[in-house]
Amino acid sequence: MDYNRIDSISRSQHPNKQLTDVQYGTAGFRAKSDLLDHVLYRMGILTVLRSKQKNATIGLMITASHNEEPDNGVKLVDPAGEMLDSSWELIATELANIPDSELVNALKKIIKDENINEDSPSSVIIGRDTRESGWSLSRAAIDGINAADGIIQDFGIITTPQLHYLVVCSNTNGSYGEPTVEGYLLKLVNALLSIKKAKNNDLYVGEIYLDAANGVGAIAAKEFQEILHDNLSIRIFNDGNGPLNHKCGADYVKVQQCPPINSPGKSLTRCVSIDGDADRVIYYYLDDSDKFHLLDGDRIATLIASYLKELVEESELKIQLGLVQTAYANGASTTYISEFLKIPVVCTETGVKHLHHKALEFDVGVYFEANGHGTVVVKDSVLKMIRTASQNMNLPKKCRTASSKLTSLIDVVNQTVGDALSDMLLVEAILYVRGWDIVTWERSYTDLPNRQLKVKVQDRNVIETTDAARKCVSPSGLQSKIDELVARYSKGRAFVRASGTEDIVRVYAECDSSSEVEKFAAEVALAVHQLAGGIGPEPIIPQ
Ligand code: 16G
Ligand code: MG
């Protein structure tokens, strides 16, 4: 590599003004966009090194997901579509923060420590969401990749899940799908159409209203609509004409528990909200008395898992199905999964990488965060077994048909990462085959009332947790105080954790009384404020 070139471009075009340190968090770097130029240049170089090390294509996505427009961020995607390995998160953080004068030595050290052969080829796929700052940040990343002599494929404005899909396709010689945006759209739509032969079926009506958070999902949804024709009518609102993620999008709707701006007023209409980079999805509707009903990630997970279970049983194949959630999963959903569906369910820490890895331990693993981030992953050997069974004429027709339905269903899934639009098509497929409307879907169980709050503290790292964030081990005394509060509420459950994306502590509380849950959450937040160094006159901020 030409270190002089790397150094001179760094100093002249992408200097580290050292305004503030940044950290590779749960989903990459996220900060005000004007702090990120040097970070993108350096991440461009780092993706080239990672690509050389892995001898595979690496992805670089520029997005700040559900944050508002002035923020931006970057995350790197490893060869199998997973989030960057955690050991490299530390390398990325260090590289992003060092002064310009140390950049070359830091790169040489990474090459040595990580046993990277500088002469290996490298290839990087980059994409960005619709944020205005995305264009210049992508230029900075491209400068970095070019300076390190990497090969770039720039897909411009795409969703985060599309980028993951493209990385996986490139690394699997097209066996997962064609490595183009069109290949992505056609793969999902063709699979959906093989399941869904008509627009309506019993209570199911093939029309949805989509809140696209004024983000990149609006573009992808329009592309889907063009090839879906009238098999599914997607009525898109918040389609890019308003401010990104402002009073709209999956995160807003989930946390505020209310419809987004511009939502259709019609009752019993099936509505969908996705986030700014289209990797989260939730459903909602208003009933006859205009009461808001949320069907979140837990609800989507249970719908998918219950239908998969039905097909697995009909196919008579030996397949181990499992479901992965986080502590944010509503207690009622966990009870429903373990006691009614009788599917093994495990809890992991928050963040896609944790859920994804755990789900890979099952033959077919469904993972979802309550916030709508999730997908289904299937072991290659299991997928092969299902495909073979679907064509095995020695098997009873019922088993063959079930295997063939499983194959189509799995093809609707973007297995590489949670994908709002793929998940939405999957939900639509299942509602269609079941002949359900949204009210029938919601009937499976009743959510426990819940509330999330955030608390500002001097140093959020004083909060340490264990047991997938369900128990707080530091500061001392906080967990026993939480236990004491929990004991006062019927079906009470609460936990606290330091956010990985904001400088705050998050509080979650649920119990079986909607009139008491606010008070319960406020008491837990107050305990955090008192025992974990709360700051500010107003200890508790609604999430
Ligand atoms: C990131 C995570 C998301 C998680 C959220 C938690 C990815 C791709 N995204 O958005 O899964 O739910 O962070 O945020 O991993 P928090 O740590 O601020 O609560
Ligand atoms: Mg997102």
Task: Explain how this protein is built.
The chain is built from 18 helices and 20 strands. The chain is an alpha/beta fold. A hairpin with a 6-residue loop joins strand 8 and strand 9. The chain starts with a helix and ends with a strand. The relative contact order is 0.09. The structure holds 2-acetamido-2-deoxy-6-O-phosphono-alpha-D-glucopyranose and magnesium ion (MG). The site of magnesium ion (MG) has 6 residues, from loops. Magnesium ion (MG) binds next to loops. It comes from Fopius arisanus. Pfam families: AMG1_II (PF21405), AMG1_III (PF21404), PGM_PMM_I (PF02878), PGM_PMM_IV (PF00408). Substrate binds at residues 369-371, 497-501, 506. Residues 52-91, 114-169 form the Alpha-D-phosphohexomutase alpha/beta/alpha domain.
Tell the overall outline. globular
Query: Approximately how much helix is present in the residues?
Result: 40-55%
Mean pLDDT comes to: 95
Radius of gyration: 23 Å
Which regions have little confidence, pLDDT < 50, spanning 5+ residues? none
Number of strands: 20
The ligands bound in this entry are: 2-acetamido-2-deoxy-6-O-phosphono-alpha-D-glucopyranose, magnesium ion
Tell me the structural class.
Answer: alpha/beta
Identify the strand order in the major beta sheet: 1-3-2-4-5
For the record, give the distance between the C-alpha atoms at the N and C termini, rounded to a whole number.
47 Å
> What does the largest sheet look like?
5 strands, mixed
By DSSP (H or I, 4+ residues per run), the number of helices equals: 18
Task: Tell me what portion of residues adopts beta-strand conformation.
Answer: 15-25%
